[in-house]
C-alpha cells in the first residue's frame, strides 16, 4: 500500500478501536441486557462508513452511499474487496474474541461497511460470525420462557419480553422457517394474558405487528418479489419470474404469518397505516394464495358469516374488514330498517371491526346535518337519515360511544373534512336535545384537534342552536377547548347578560390559563379586545370580564 492508503486504513482501524473501547466502558449498555433473559446481547451489527477524513462506526445501519467527503478516496473497488476487507475483518474478529462471552455482543454479529472508492461507493459485509454456544443458550431461554410464561403462565407479561420473543421466533438464523401455527398461537396467547390492561395490550400488539412487518419486508417477501424504495420512502414490489407459493393453501405455511400480520395491521393500527396490511394481502394473492383472495373479497377470518352479513326484508348489510367497508342497502325507509343497520354496525365494532370504516349506502333518502362543510359522504348521509327518527337517538348514542376513538377516522373523508368515528351521530344528537350534552363533552375529550377541523363547524351551530344556558355552557366550553383560531362565535350579544356571562366565567375559571385563552378567543378575539371591554364596563360586569382575563393569565 502507498502512504495515502496506509493513512486511510489507519483511519478506519482507529474508528473501529474507538467504537469497541466506547462500548466496553459503558456499563449501562450491559445492564440493559439484564432486563430480560430473551436477549443474548446488545449489538448485532456495526457499520463502518469510510469517507476520507470523516470515517465513523455506528451500531445501526445508515445509508451513507453517495455522501461526499472533501478528500478523494485512495482505494479502488478491487482494493477494498481484496485488501481492505480482509484486514478489517481480522481486526474486528480479534476484538470480538475478547468480548464473545460478554453481554454486549449478540449470538450473531455482522460487520458491514460503506466505502468511498475511486469507482464510487461500495457496500459489503466485511464479517459475519455466529457464536453457537450463545445461540444454544438463547434457544433454551426462549423455550423456557414460552413454557413458563405463556403456555403455563396466567399473569400479564412485559412488552420488552414480547419485543424480543416475537423477533426471535421470526429470526431465520434461529429458526430456519417459522412454524406459522405455533407462532400465531403464541402471539394470540400474549394478547390473551394482557387483555385486562388496555394500554399495555396495545403496546404488546405494536411489538407483534412490528416484528411481523419487519419479517415480511426483510425475509418473506424478498423471496418472491424484487423490493425497491420509492421516492416517497415506501416499498414497491415487482414479482419475480415464476414466483409462487409451494403448498400455498395447506395449513401451517409461512404465508399464514403474512396474512395474520395483515389482519393485525388492519384491526389495530391507525388509519394511515392500514394500507400496509391491505398491501400484504394483495401481494399474497398475487402469489396464488386462495385464502388471501377470499380475504380481499369477503374479509378476514376474524368474523363469522353471521357477524358480517345481515339479510332482512327491510335492510341488507355486508361488511368487509379488509377494506373497512360496510355496505347498507335500505329496502324500506323506516326506523326499523335503520335500527337493524345500526345494531349490525354496533355489534361489529364490539367484536373488533376496524373503527376507521366507511359505509356504502343505497337509500332513497338524502338527509344531511345542518352543518356547512361536512363531507357529503354515504357515511354522513346514513347517520343523518337515521337521526330523522327520534326513537333511534338512544341507540345512536350507544353507537357513538362505542365508535369514538382518537386517531381513527371515517374512511370516506380526508384532509380538512376528516372526522372521528361517531362524529355524525354526536353532532346530530348534540344539536337535537340537552340530554346529549354529556355525549358532546365526551366526544370533545377525544377529538384530535390537530388533524380535525369539522368540530369547529359543529361548535358554531351548537352555540347558535342552544346559546349559553346552565345546561349548555359546560358542553360549549368543552367544544371551545378544542377550537381553532379560525372559529368565530356570534354570542357576544347574549353575554351582555350578567347571568350568562357569570355562567361562562364559572366554567372558564376551572381551566389552565392557556385553555381559558383558547376558549375566549372565538368569542372576543385577542385578549386586548376583552381588556378594552373590561376597562369600559361598570359594576359586576366589569369584575366578571376581569375574572375572565385573570383566568387566561392576561390580567
Q: How would you explain this protein's 3D organization?
A:
The protein is α+β, with helices and mostly antiparallel strands and 555 residues long. 51% of the residues lie in helices and 11% in strands. A four-stranded mixed beta sheet has the order 2-1-3-4. A hairpin with a 5-residue loop joins strand 5 and strand 6. Helix 12 (335-350) packs parallel to helix 14 (393-403). The longest helix is centred in the N-terminal third of the chain and has 23 residues, at 77-99. The termini are far apart. Mean pLDDT is 91; it is low at 61-67.
Summarize the model shown.
By secondary structure, this protein is an alpha+beta fold. Helices cover 51% and strands 11% of the residues.
> Gap between N and C termini, in Å?
76 Å
Unreliable stretches (pLDDT < 50, length at least 5) are 61-67
Rg (C-alpha, Å): 31 Å
Number of strands: 10
Portion of residues in helices? Answer: 40-55%
Mean pLDDT figure: 91
Overall SS class:
alpha+beta
Strand content: 5-15%
Number of helices: 22
For the largest beta-sheet, the strand count, sense and barrel status come to: 4 strands, mixed
Strand order of the largest sheet: 2-1-3-4
Shape: globular
SSE topology:
Blueprint: H1 3-24, H2 27-33, E1 43-50, E2 56-58, H3 77-99, E3 105-115, E4 122-130, H4 132-151, H5 159-169, H6 180-193, H7 198-220, E5 225-229, E6 235-239, H8 254-268, H9 274-286, H10 290-298, H11 305-308, E7 309-311, E8 315-320, E9 325-330, H12 335-350, E10 358-362, H13 378-387, H14 393-403, H15 423-432, H16 437-446, H17 454-466, H18 473-480, H19 498-508, H20 513-524, H21 527-536, H22 539-551
Parallel strand pairs: 1-3, 9-10
Antiparallel strand pairs: 1-2, 3-4, 5-6, 7-8, 8-9
Helix pairs in contact: 1-3, 5-7, 6-8, 7-8, 8-9, 9-10, 12-14, 13-15, 14-15, 15-16, 15-17, 16-18, 19-22, 20-22, 21-22
Amino acid at each position: 500500500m502507498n502512504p495515502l492508503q496506509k493513512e486511510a486504513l489507519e483511519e478506519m482501524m482507529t474508528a473501529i478501536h474507538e467504537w469497541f473501547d466506547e462500548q466496553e466502558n459503558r456499563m449501562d449498555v450491559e445492564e440493559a441486557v439484564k432486563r430480560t433473559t430473551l436477549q443474548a446481547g446488545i449489538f448485532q451489527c456495526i457499520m463502518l462508513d469510510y469517507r476520507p477524513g470523516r470515517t465513523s462506526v455506528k451500531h445501526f445501519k445508515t445509508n451513507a452511499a453517495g455522501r461526499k467527503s472533501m478528500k478523494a478516496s485512495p482505494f479502488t473497488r478491487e482494493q477494498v474487496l481484496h485488501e481492505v476487507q480482509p484486514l478489517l475483518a481480522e481486526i474486528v474478529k480479534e476484538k470480538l474474541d475478547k468480548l464473545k462471552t460478554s453481554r454486549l455482543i449478540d449470538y450473531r454479529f455482522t460487520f458491514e461497511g460503506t466505502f468511498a472508492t475511486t469507482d464510487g461507493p461500495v457496500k459489503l459485509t466485511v464479517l459475519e460470525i455466529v457464536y453457537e454456544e450463545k445461540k444454544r443458550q438463547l434457544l433454551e431461554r426462549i423455550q423456557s420462557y414460552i413454557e413458563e410464561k405463556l403456555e403455563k403462565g396466567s399473569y400479564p407479561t412485559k412488552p420488552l419480553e414480547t419485543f424480543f420473543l416475537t423477533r426471535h421466533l421470526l429470526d431465520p438464523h434461529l429458526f430456519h422457517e417459522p412454524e406459522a401455527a405455533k407462532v400465531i398461537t403464541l402471539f394470540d396467547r400474549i394478547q390473551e394474558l394482557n387483555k385486562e390492561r388496555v394500554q399495555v395490550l396495545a403496546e404488546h400488539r405494536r411489538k407483534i405487528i412490528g416484528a411481523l412487518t419487519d419479517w415480511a419486508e426483510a425475509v418473506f417477501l424478498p423471496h418472491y418479489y424484487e423490493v425497491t424504495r420509492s421516492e416517497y420512502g415506501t416499498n414497491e414490489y415487482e414479482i419475480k419470474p415464476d414466483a409462487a407459493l409451494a403448498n400455498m393453501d395447506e395449513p401451517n405455511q409461512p404465508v399464514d404469518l403474512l396474512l395474520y400480520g395483515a389482519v393485525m395491521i388492519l384491526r389495530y393500527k391507525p388509519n394511515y397505516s392500514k394500507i400496509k396490511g391491505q398491501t400484504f394481502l394483495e401481494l399474497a394473492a398475487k402469489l396464488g394464495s386462495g385464502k388471501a383472495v377470499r380475504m380481499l373479497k369477503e374479509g378476514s377470518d376474524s368474523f363469522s358469516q353471521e357477524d358480517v352479513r345481515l339479510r332482512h326484508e327491510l335492510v341488507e348489510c355486508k361488511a368487509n374488514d379488509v377494506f373497512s367497508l360496510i355496505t347498507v342497502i335500505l329496502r324500506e325507509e323506516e326506523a326499523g330498517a335503520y335500527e337493524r343497520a345500526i345494531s349490525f354496525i354496533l355489534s361489529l365494532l364490539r367484536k373488533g371491526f376496524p373503527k376507521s370504516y366507511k359505509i356504502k349506502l343505497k337509500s332513497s333518502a338524502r338527509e344531511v346535518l345542518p352543518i356547512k362543510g361536512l363531507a357529503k359522504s354515504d357515511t354522513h348521509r346514513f347517520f343523518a337519515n337515521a337521526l330523522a327518527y327520534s326513537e333511534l337517538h338512544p341507540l345512536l348514542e350507544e353507537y357513538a360511544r362505542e365508535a369514538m376513538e382518537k386517531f381513527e377516522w371515517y374512511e370516506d373523508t380526508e384532509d380538512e373534512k376528516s372526522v372521528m368515528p361517531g362524529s355524525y351521530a354526536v353532532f346530530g344528537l348534540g344539536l337535537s336535545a340537552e340530554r346529549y350534552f354529556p355525549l358532546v363533552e365526551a366526544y370533545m375529550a377525544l377529538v384530535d384537534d390537530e388533524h380535525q377541523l369539522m368540530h369547529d363547524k359543529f361548535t358554531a351551530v351548537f352555540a347558535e342552536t342552544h346559546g349559553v344556558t346552565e345546561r349548555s355552557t359546560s358542553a360549549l366550553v368543552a367544544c371551545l377547548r378544542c377550537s381553532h383560531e379560525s372559529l368565530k362565535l356570534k354570542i357576544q350579544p347574549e353575554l351582555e347578560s350578567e347571568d350568562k356571562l357569570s355562567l361562562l366565567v364559572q366554567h372558564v375559571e376551572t381551566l389552565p390559563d392557556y385553555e381559558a385563552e383558547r376558549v375566549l378567543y372565538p368569542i372576543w378575539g385577542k385578549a386586548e379586545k376583552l381588556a378594552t371591554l373590561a376597562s369600559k364596563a361598570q359594576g359586576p360586569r366589569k369584575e366578571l370580564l376581569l375574572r375572565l382575563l385573570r383566568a387566561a393569565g392576561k390580567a
